[in-house]
Amino acid sequence: MLIALGVTGGIGAYKAVEVARGLQKRGHDVVAVMTQNATRFVGPLTFEAITRRPVITDQFAPGANADIEHIALASTIDLLLIAPATANIIGKLANGIADDFLSTLYTATRAPLLLAPSMNTQMFAHEAVRQNLDTLAARGARFVEPGEGYLACGWIGKGRLAEPDEIVAAAGAILRPAGPLRGQRISIPCATSATGRAAAWATRSRPKPRRAAPRSRWSPDRRPWLRRPCAM
Ligand SMILES: Cc1cc2nc3c(=O)[nH]c(=O)nc-3n(C[C@H](O)[C@H](O)[C@H](O)COP(=O)(O)O)c2cc1C
Fold first, then answer.
1. Alpha-carbon distance 167 to 79, whole Å?
2. Residue 35 CB less than 6 A away from ligand 1
3. What's the 111 CA to ligand 1 centre distance in angstroms?
4. Closest CA to 79 of 44, 116, 126
């Protein structure tokens, strides 16, 4: 699965490196998207080395937009995970503000959103932040609750970024939801035995031959961001 890991400018940004590692250890592909303020806390190089992919830090980077990068990425990711999520990004996402790569990606993608908020206790308790979180929850966003305890700012209370393992587990739960077939052994007839061949033949659907459509400049294979429905 491809996960866009949004990293914003909070004191917990260093923990996002462990989140990227944890996701990779579970076999996911990770592309890091850092806000400009996040790069003041952790260097993009760290994420580049860990994810083995270029890190997106600038919506208008020369050469990045031959394929309108945020739209191309929006249609290929399976999850948008933001850890840490600042009060600022939470406010922008709740209100549809798209003024950098990460907030624009959110409006362009239909992938599930998982947020790990992290901020000072007073900020987390502020009515504006609570309302923004409620708005996002009503829209289907999922959250990894911040932890309680001693915060970097010297306060004691709720607001510390959840532990990386917890965030990785929450991402895994979204990507592999528990369903009625979870853990069941399913046998699928294959064509290597006589019985399997007969079963496979019986269940095979035979589509009618179709003439290939002429390739136009609007065909999805020429514009990869059109392969999945998107809002723009
Ligand atoms: C040292 C320091 C630590 C900060 N930690 C946080 C934080 O943990 N959570 C938060 O919401 N904002 C925090 N801020 C404020 C954000 O950096 C600021 O709101 C910024 O505009 C966020 O930008 P971004 O959301 O685009 O990354 C911190 C600022 C500084 C200077």
1. 13
2. yes
3. 25
4. 116
- pTM of the model as a whole: 0.79
For 9, residues 6+ apart whose C-beta sits below 8 A from its C-beta are 35, 36, 37, 38, 40, 41, 86, 88
Rounded-to-10 torsion of CA 182, 23, 11, 6? -90
Look up residue 230 and give its two tokens: 């998107």
Whole-angstrom distance, CA of residue 25 vs CA of residue 19: 10
* Amino acid identity for residue 166 in this structure: E
Q: How far is the CA of 189 from the centre of ligand 1 (A)?
A: 55
What beta strand segments (E) does 51-97 contain? 79-85
> φ and ψ at 209, to 5 degrees?
-65, 135
Q: Which residue CA neighbors atom 20 of ligand 1 most closely?
A: 9
Write the pLDDT tens digit of every residue in 39-82. Answer: 999 999 999 999 999 999 998 888 777 677 778 899 999 999 99
- What is the position in ligand 1's atom list of the atom closest to the CA of 119? 9
**Mean pLDDT confidence for 116-136:** 97
Can you list the domains of the chain with their CATH numbers? 2-175 (3.40.50.1950)
Q: What is the largest CA-CA distance in the chain?
A: 71
Token couple for 143 = 């959250």
